[in-house]
Amino acid sequence: MIKFEHVGLRYGVGPEVLTDVNFKLEPGSFHFLSGPSGAGKTSLLSLLYLGRRPTRGLISMFGRDVGQLSRTELKDIRQNIGVVFQDFRLLNHMSAFDNIALPLRIMGHSEHEIQENVGELMEWVGLGDHTQMLPPTLSGGQQQRVAIARAVITRPRLLVADEPTGNLDDEAGLRLLTLFDQLNRMGTSVIIASHNMPLMEKFSQHRRLLLNNGKVDIVTPNIEIKQKLEGMF
Amino acid sequence: MFRLKKRESFLGVSVGKRQYDLPLNKDKGNNFLILLIALMSVMGVLALCGSFALSEMKTRWTSGLENKATIEIPAQDENGVLLSNAIIEDIAITVTDLLETQPNIENVERLSDGEIAALISPWLGDSDKALEQFPIPALITVHFAKGADSDLIAERIKNVAPTAILDRHESWLADVLEFTGTLKAVAIGVTFIVLFTTIVSVAGAVQSRMAVYHEELELLHIMGAADSYITRQIQRYMMGICLKGAVIGTFTGITMVLIGTWLAGSGESALIPRFTLSGVQWIILLLLPCFIGIIGMGTARHTTLRNLRQMA
Ligand SMILES: Nc1ncnc2c1ncn2[C@@H]1O[C@H](COP(=O)(O)OP(=O)(O)O)[C@@H](O)[C@H]1O
Ligand SMILES: [Mg+2]
Fold first, then answer.
1. Best label site of A148, A200, B25, B214, fewest CB within 10 Å?
2. Mutate which of A42, A89, A192 to test ligand 1's pocket (most atoms within 8 Å of Cβ)?
3. CATH classification of B68-168 is 3.30.70, yes or no?
4. Is the CB of B222 less than 8 angstroms away from the CB of A133?
5. Three-state SS annotation for chain B
6. A132 and B218: CB-CB below 8 Å?
7. B102 falls in which pLDDT band (50, 70, 90)?
């Protein structure tokens, strides 16, 4: 479903952040993306959600070469991707409800559908009492739930999350990953950037993309690799 | 796209008001833009009313003159010697008779002494004595039909009455046309300034807002928003601002014109006609805000699309 071939990325005239990234993700898969801070996890995710174009190499998504897409096709593919940004990127002038509803409005869903779906999801993520609050008045954890709800409201084919457990306590982090796991079971491919080792351990059935020195190793979890990882951090 | 919300926010809780995906409503430059558009609309109204008044004046000053000529039989001969009224009368009759035999002449009319006296009374005073003392020139008005050869007729008149002067009002017409033409050019110039300023300020406002909300625009793109989706909001928003400014400005302008003509109307002047707006002219004035709204919307649309296409 997603294929990276010899992908390189640099910012301006700086050094290459990604040098030669190669991997393939199957539909319905679940991956962690790990690596030390500054390794380029956020950069790699931005290529995945088509927020940026690679400087080199080939990326294909849902069977299409991303470099060849027209603006309309690009928009259609983006509508199939949900993103949880590290800094959430909520729109501060609109209510939590409207933030979550935004992707549906962009896709042209009816207001009736929107009221129903968004209301239900907000209840489900525990924001039922905060529908009309503006993001700046919500706690960090609540803002994060808004960001996550916004990413999944369209039931995307691919869910990309950048350090989503960053400012959650262990218990909340576990609940969040359980939620992602459930979404994955319903067919969404999930890729989560994280360096929370203990948490990843709890979901050790999932494979990891290990980003280091601008390259990606696909790691199938087993003891030896675990040791290799531990040596890195 | 946008939804009805009553007020922006209250204690951190958003309450219903018309809202856009970008925080456009919170922009501080909005009031300035509305004021600018309002001023432009006032200028637009004044320019329009000016050109309405102008065409009214032009028709009044030139109406019927195009096919008319006046023949003056002066009260003195080539050497400046005063003629008697009897001789002037003779020449006038000769000329009138000649004109009546010419083709393509609709009508020939001799101004009576009384009419001439009325015309020159401002200069000579009302006294009958003055008129008796001085010989009075004769004035004959000719209406040409279509196809009349006024040059040929002028030549024939010269043959029978060498001192007669044929005035085809050409220089008067030319003066009026030149004068009104200049004023019209000024009005058109003002209209262009208004248009240009509106376009430039709307384009500038859109450009700066897009720079300010670059991250939000990027986010909308990442969520899969089409350029048209974003453009619709911005163009609608800018049209709202332009309409607001233009309505305020147009009504201010119309009020100014009405008060101005009311004040000027107290002194009756024949040369500058009393200014009243016809139905069509009212419609044109009231369409001005729509026109400015559409210009603003088109400009916003063009600017937004051009900027969005440069984004990833
Ligand atoms: N927008 C940017 N412009 C320039 N350099 C950037 C930008 N984003 C990231 N970088 C650089 O790219 C490298 C990788 O950053 P990032 O992808 O954020 O890593 P990670 O998410 O793994 O911590 C860092 O050296 C960072 O300074
Ligand atoms: Mg990062």
1. B214
2. A42
3. yes
4. no
5. CCECECCCEECCEECCECECCCCHHHCCHHHHHHHHHHHHHHHHHHHHHHHHHHHHHHHHHHCCCCCEEEEEECCECCCCCECCHHHHHHHHHHHHHHHHHCCCEEEEEECCHHHHHHHHHHHHCCCHHHHHHCCCCEEEEEEECCCCCHHHHHHHHHHHCCCCEEECCHHHHHHHHHHHHHHHHHHHHHHHHHHHHHHHHHHHHHHHHHHHCHHHHHHHHHCCCCHHHHHHHHHHHHHHHHHHHHHHHHHHHHHHHHHHHHHHHCCCCCCCCCCCCCHHHHHHHHHHHHHHHHHHHHHHHHHHHHHHHCCC
6. no
7. confident
